[in-house]
Design brief:
With about 450 residues, this protein is an alpha+beta fold. It has eight helices and 25 strands. The protein folds into three domains: about 5-55 and about 160-270 and about 405-455, Nuclear Transport Factor 2, Chain: A, CATH 3.10.450; about 70-155, Nuclear Transport Factor 2, Chain: A, CATH 3.10.450.350; about 280-390, Glucose Permease (Domain IIA) (Distorted Sandwich), CATH 2.70.70. α5 (about 175-180) runs antiparallel to α6. The structure holds zinc ion (ZN).
Length: about 450
């Protein structure tokens, strides 16, 4: 270690102070609720990015060793299995399994049981089921234990700590690949791409030598074995020397936090530039020889070539007008954004969860997946923008802008942005350091305890 202890402490106190003010300004305890509404939810089977996913050590095993004489068996939920099958297979008596599941379901909706979920079943010396441990979510463990001939369940809080991570890097191929190499997990990269999707056309505007920088939250179990990624607080893309910086901020009257440029202009526009990530623009708007019919006709949208199952996002907030088969369009979704604008998405392999006519959707929400239904030669997304009911060239569209912060909101935002900048500066010019906010808040007398170094 090159730096001495006092410098650690000094930087730590500065960061601690920052952490408190930041936490105050942006309402840190709310992110889970928000991300549920805004982040694209990609189901396991359809997650084509999953190969690049960050997989934290998943360990629901209790920290303490089991009581002597107890045999702990780890079981994993497989396709087509219910909890009953799992427990009986692991050696439980049917009656015991039934009672244990009944206890477990007091704290867990068994319909939500997911493939790949693990739990632990404990058996005593007589091979009787004596208990179950299952992680409910990042912050809770359900412990089921035998009491004579019955089972009781208790919900236990799992302590965690919140840190912020700062990562930056130069783009040598795609933003995704480069960010992943720098240690950014899949979900955070997808979020980053989503928040910049109003300003940046990722198919055409990213070049070798461009760079990115990000500050985001990470929740960790106290033993550091489990990790949950949180919100992006700040992200910056520098494209051909021109920086675009976005800060997370929740306007006083808004339901959700959003991202804003340093001047207070929201990143969100009425419509996104492209409703899909990681796709190649394969056919433009205009006259072309039709690949199936053979003669020249007008192509009234953009085609994006992408693997089957690639998620398609709603280009803007709106109401689903149609989500059904539609002639040569195949599986088709059309969204009405306002009185003027609609967008349509064709040839889908399947629809997003809950997507049907009348459903309200948020910008960036997954409304379907790339496929090859209808009259097509290859899988792709056919994307249309309609203005007053008529298709227009999406690339020529002057995209309406979002909101600009004013008055008190603007003042608060400017302070927050300055805090973020200062924090990042401190990180860059002192040491790469993360702080343990929760411990620091609980234990202000011993700031040293709240610090730990993290190497990148
Ligand atoms: Zn097309």
């Amino acid at each position: 270690m090159i730096l001495n202890r006092n410098r650690h402490l000094f930087a730590g106190i500065a960061l601690f102070a920052f952490g408190v003010s930041l936490g105050y300004l942006i309402d840190l305890p709310t992110p889970n609720v928000e991300s549920a509404g805004t982040a694209p939810v990609i189901s396991q089977e359809e997650n084509y990015l999953d190969s690049a996913n960050y997989v934290p050590v998943d360990d629901t095993a209790p920290d303490e060793s089991p009581e002597p004489g107890l045999n702990l068996i780890q079981v994993t939920v497989k396709r087509g299995q219910g909890m009953m099958d799992i427990l009986v297979k692991s050696g439980a008596d049917r009656k015991d399994a039934y009672k244990a599941i009944k206890a477990l379901s007091q704290h867990y909706n068994m319909k939500k049981l997911q493939i790949g979920q693990t739990l632990y079943a404990a058996y005593d010396a007589d091979s009787r089921l004596s208990g179950l441990n299952m992680q409910k979510d990042f912050d809770h463990m359900i412990r089921v234990s035998r009491t004579d001939d019955n089972f009781n369940a208790a919900l236990e809080d799992l302590p965690s700590i919140k840190i912020t991570r700062h990562v930056e890097g130069v783009i040598s191929d795609s933003l995704f690949q480069s960010a992943y190499r720098e240690g950014l997990p899949n979900r955070v990269i997808v979020d980053m791409i989503r928040i910049f999707s109003f300003d940046v056309d990722f198919q055409r505007e990213i070049r070798k030598g461009d760079s990115f920088e990000i500050l985001y939250e990470r929740k960790m179990s106290e033993d550091g074995r489990r990790v949950e990624e949180g919100n992006i607080l700040f992200a910056k893309l520098t494209l051909r020397g021109k920086p675009i910086s976005l800060y997370r901020y929740k306007p006083a009257k808004a339901l959700f936090a959003d991202y804003f440029h340093a001047n207070g202009q929201s990143a969100k526009k009425a419509l996104m530039r492209t409703p899909i990530e990681g796709a190649r623009l394969s056919s433009y708007y205009g006259k072309r020889k039709h690949p199936v019919l053979g003669y020249t006709r007008m192509h009234k949208g953009l085609d994006f070539a992408a693997p089957t199952g690639t998620p398609i996002m709603a280009a803007g907030d709106g109401i689903v007008e149609r989500a059904s088969r539609y002639g040569s369009y195949g599986n088709y979704v059309r969204i009405r954004h306002n009185g003027t604008y609609k967008t349509a998405y064709a040839h889908l392999s399947k629809y997003g969860r809950g997507i049907k006519a009348g459903k309200r959707v948020k910008q960036g929400q997954i409304i379907g997946y790339v496929g090859a239904t209808g009259r097509v030669t290859a899988r792709h997304l056919h994307y249309e923008v309609l203005v007053n009911g008529k298709q227009v060239n999406p690339l020529r569209l002057k995209i309406p802008t979002g909101i600009t912060l004013k008055g008190k909101d603007k003042k608060k935002f400017v302070t927050l942005a300055a805090d973020v900048d200062q924090h990042i500066n401190a990180l860059k010019h002192n040491i790469l350091l993360t702080w343990n906010q929760k411990v620091a808040l609980n234990d202000t007398g011993k700031n040293e305890k709240s610090l730990f170094l993290q190497s990148y």
